[in-house]
Amino acid sequence: MSDATGLGPQLERRRPAASGYPVLVIDDHELFSTSLTMALRREGFDAHTLPVADVHDFLGREAVGPTGLVLLDLDLGQDAEGHYVNGADLVSRLRTLGWKVLVVSGGTDRRGVAAAIASGAIGSVPKSRSLDVLVGTVKTAASGDPVMTDAEHQGWLERHRRYLAQEQDLSRRLSRLSPRELEVLELLTEGMRAAAIAEHFVVSMPTVRTQIRSILAKLAVGSQLEAVALFRQQAETVDRSGRRVGSQHRHE
Q1: Which of 15, 22, 39, 150 holds its CA 20 to 30 A away from the CA of 164?
Q2: Which of the two residues, 92 and 245, has the higher pLDDT score?
């Protein structure tokens, strides 16, 4: 059985890569990307690092020259305008340009890996694996062999469907809240007590208690802790514009 990263038994089939096979490393960690690029070049790959700052321009161009494999991190930090760059969002465009995509991520973002594979990535391998394993996986992909089994692929697609269903349910529940109830919930999430919230909005304590009871009922939860947990779960999901839930509301 392979590990949870999606690597299949094909990993040990170390077929020689075709000389000059193109590989692009898209990662914001310079030491890792440079080390991996050099290791791939020693094996005969035409490997290069694509800086995160240049990804937007690269995706906006028509495909020129031969395509091959992109080794893609999921957490790419922020672009020049301060927007979070989610690697999973790049997979579809890279596939359209003719590139295969292998996720090489340092985190444990199973949601991100599932989204990337659902968008067409061929598999995932953690950065914690040795350079030999990473290079071997690239060789497997370059030879045309799968890096995960059909069962593993279907497993990731099922995870992605479950994650989407959970996110849709959470969004639906939060959409029931009024703008003021969302503000109250955000303040609760930040650790404010009801008395401080009443003072913040210059309203009575009974008013805040009524709002909190309404929040719990609309979210179908039994406690403020559960409501806060739901809000935090939603806030961890960064949309394509890089904005988070609650970013509209600011207070001193």
Answers
A1: 150
A2: 92
